[in-house]
């Protein structure tokens, strides 16, 4: 659980932090999001699932919650502790890696680690991402050529490092 949580939450946290310009705000916001999805949503789901009027809503919401790695680890830990008591007190044949216990959450975190890592790689090699090594550098060069071509089509030209529009005015001023 811990390994897959780390593998899925690190790229997820990186993606979330990219939307902030201040690292302190990013850290606090990502920690808040992890707390909300890992504690509040997990407890909210189990409370809603125990009330008859809100079971249908809980059944829908859980599918959205599972896109967050903290929710998966919280649910896996609760299911793991529940299976321990089912096995030791009631004598059920329930094992930790069963799909209904931790298996589904482990599978979700495994898939999310690849999904979020793929998104990180795609952002890093894109124009907005910066970095990306050889591929990212070449993609940004191609993007600049395309952008310059579009500007020239719209009457914009570069003179002395400045962008100028062909408007008929004197460029010397």
Question: How does this model look, in words?
Answer:
The mean pLDDT is 85. The protein has a two-stranded antiparallel ribbon. It is mainly alpha-helical and 173 residues long. It starts with a helix and ends in an 8-residue tail after the last strand. It has helices spanning 2-17, 23-50, 55-65, 69-88, 99-124, 133-153; strands at residues 156-159, 162-165. The chain has 6 helices and 2 strands; from the N terminus they run ααααααββ.
Features:
173 residues, two-stranded antiparallel sheet, mainly alpha
Summarize this entry quickly.
This protein is mainly alpha-helical and about 170 residues long. It has six helices and two strands.
Overall average residue pLDDT: 85
Global structural class: mainly alpha
Q: Give the CA-CA distance, first to last residue.
A: 66 Å
> H/E series, N to C?
HHHHHHEE
Q: Tell me the number of helical segments per DSSP (H or I, 4 or more residues long).
A: 6
The helix content, as a percent range, equals over 70%
Q: What's the total count of β strands?
A: 2
* Main sheet makeup: 2 strands, antiparallel
Q: Unreliable segments (pLDDT under 50, ≥5 consecutive)?
A: none
Radius of gyration, CA atoms, in whole angstroms? 25 Å
Major beta sheet, strand line-up: 1-2
Overall 3D geometry? elongated
Per-chain topology:
Blueprint: H1 2-17, H2 23-50, H3 55-65, H4 69-88, H5 99-124, H6 133-153, E1 156-159, E2 162-165
Antiparallel strand pairs: 1-2
Helix pairs in contact: 1-4, 1-5, 2-3, 2-4, 4-5
């Amino acid at each position: 659980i811990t390994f897959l949580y780390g593998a899925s939450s690190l790229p997820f946290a990186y993606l979330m932090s990219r939307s902030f310009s201040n690292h302190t705000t990013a850290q606090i916001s990502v920690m808040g999001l992890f707390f909300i999805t890992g504690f509040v949503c997990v407890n909210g789901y189990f409370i809603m699932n125990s009330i008859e009027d809100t079971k249908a809503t809980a059944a829908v919401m859980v599918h959205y919650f599972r896109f967050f790695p903290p929710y998966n680890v919280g649910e896996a830990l609760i299911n793991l502790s529940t299976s321990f008591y089912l096995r030791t007190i009631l004598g059920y044949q329930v094992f930790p890696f069963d799909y209904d216990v931790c298996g589904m959450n482990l599978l979700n975190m495994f898939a999310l680690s690849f999904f979020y890592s793929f998104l990180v790689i795609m952002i890093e090699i894109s124009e907005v991402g910066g970095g990306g090594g050889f591929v990212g550098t070449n993609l940004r060069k191609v993007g600049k050529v395309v952008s310059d071509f579009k500007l020239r089509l719209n009457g914009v030209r570069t003179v002395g490092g400045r962008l100028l529009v062909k408007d008929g005015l004197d460029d010397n001023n």
